Inverse folding.
């Protein structure tokens, strides 16, 4: 079987490496296609190096642009590669423009798509990611849902065939890397931090960065935090903070450590030893519960409701009073803290990648890995 992986951003690399490794364990060498949606060293190459993902077959250098431009150029370039290579299946992960472009280009060439992390829904169609998730799921033949909730979302949209609940490969990634991170990373020493005496914050969602009003609210929250905070800034947010004159304001604060985005080993170590995580990232909401660190999500909805139900995550939005209330509570109420920290990981046992490869190989052997004319027969 000839599998092809299509990816282009930081979280896709992190979450697909475990699946690529599982194929390699079975003696298969997948085709690797990097769209170049993320291209800075800190957003892409550092992960290829740390996770030892060598031998990318195609670098498509799509780069940044508007939604349609980025998706369109990616589709054109992916189609060219797929026509030349004719893989048996393409694998995409998550909800980025790379995923939508890969899924559409592939299914239209009648190459079946396997969607890793299928069925997530924020139920907010104003997010570009929600559109990407829905369309990618409907273009896919094999849907790897991380949880039963994700499976139910697919069922609600009429997708029943080809759905497998396999857990989330973020657990594989965390299990495979957190010990290495603990040993190798010197990030706490670099920033002069002690375990459990600081918070980590990230923010890059369009709804938080594109609106000046919301970005100002975020800055006011950071300024008011009653605990040292490390903030690795996504390039999208760095540009906006600088444009709005907010970067210097944050930099001037003694309790705020602003830094470039970090490599995976440094970020995992920082997260694992943090007292609290504040974020609008999907992957970081997942990692926090796996690493037993309470997470406050700077959004009003989440496509990871399992983390909320389990008790490890609270949607705090961007209202300063609410965010600071929860931070204070976590710092002062031991019972509340320990309840959040001890929430059970809902994303599986760290063998998701292996399971996906077993399923794909078995479908392939039975001749069932193909684009079917209807889902309903
Ligand atoms: C994308 C995904 C988002 C995911 C995130 C992971 C879409 C619609 N969004 O958002 O779901 O959570 O990746 O981090 O696909 N930039 C750089 N250097 C880079 C990459 C980006 O400077 O290497 C800047 C550019 O100004 C670019 C902006 O960041 O315009 C946004 O990048 P883009 O990849 O379009 O979206 P993300 O916000 O990264
Ligand atoms: N991450 C990282 N360095 C950073 C910030 C995040 O390695 O400075 C990792 C993080 O551990 C997680 C992933 O990047 O695995 C999340 O990516 P991001 O927040 O960009 O995207 P999302 O998950 O929201 O799509």
């Amino acid at each position: 079987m000839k599998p092809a992986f299509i990816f282009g951003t930081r979280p896709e690399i992190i979450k697909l490496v475990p699946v690529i490794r599982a194929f390699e364990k079975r003696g298969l060498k997948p085709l690797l296609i990097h769209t170049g949606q993320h291209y800075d060293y800190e957003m892409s190459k550092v992960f290829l190096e740390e996770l030892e993902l060598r031998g990318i077959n195609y670098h498509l250098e799509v780069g940044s642009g508007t939604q349609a431009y980025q998706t369109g150029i990616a589709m054109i370039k992916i189609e060219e590669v797929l026509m030349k290579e004719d893989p048996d299946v393409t694998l995409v992960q998550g909800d980025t423009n790379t995923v939508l472009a890969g899924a559409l280009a592939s299914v239209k060439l009648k190459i079946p798509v396997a969607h890793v992390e299928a069925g997530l829904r924020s139920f907010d169609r104003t997010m570009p990611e929600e559109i990407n998730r829905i369309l990618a799921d409907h273009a896919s033949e094999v849907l790897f849902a991380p949880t039963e909730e994700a499976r139910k979302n697919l069922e609600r949209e009429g997708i029943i065939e080809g759905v497998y609940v396999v857990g989330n490969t973020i657990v594989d990634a965390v299990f495979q890397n957190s010990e290495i991170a603990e040993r190798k990373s010197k990030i706490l020493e670099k920033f002069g931090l002690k375990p459990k005496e600081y918070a980590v914050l990230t923010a890059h969602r369009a709804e938080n960065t594109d609106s000046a009003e919301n970005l100002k609210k975020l800055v006011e929250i950071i300024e008011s935090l009653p605990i040292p905070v490390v903030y690795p800034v996504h390039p999208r947010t760095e540009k906006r903070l600088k444009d709005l004159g907010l970067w210097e304001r944050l930099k001037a604060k003694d309790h705020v450590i602003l830094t470039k985005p970090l490599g995976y080993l440094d970020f995992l170590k920082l997260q694992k030893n943090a007292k609290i995580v504040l974020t609008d990232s999907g992957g970081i909401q997942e990692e926090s519960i796996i690493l037993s660190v309470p997470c406050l999500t700077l959004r009003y909805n989440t496509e990871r409701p399992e983390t909320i139900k389990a008790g490890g995550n609270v949607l705090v939005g961007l209202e300063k009073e609410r965010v600071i209330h929860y931070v204070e509570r976590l710092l002062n109420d031991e019972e509340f803290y320990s309840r959040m920290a001890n929430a059970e990981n809902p994303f599986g046992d760290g063998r998701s990648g292996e399971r996906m490869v077993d399923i794909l190989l078995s479908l392939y052997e039975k001749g069932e890995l193909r684009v079917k004319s209807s889902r309903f027969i």
Notes: The pocket of uridine-diphosphate-N-acetylglucosamine (ligand 1) is lined by residues 9-11, 37-40, 43, 64, 70, 95-97, 128-129, 204, 235-236, 239 (CB under 6 Å). The mean pLDDT is 97.
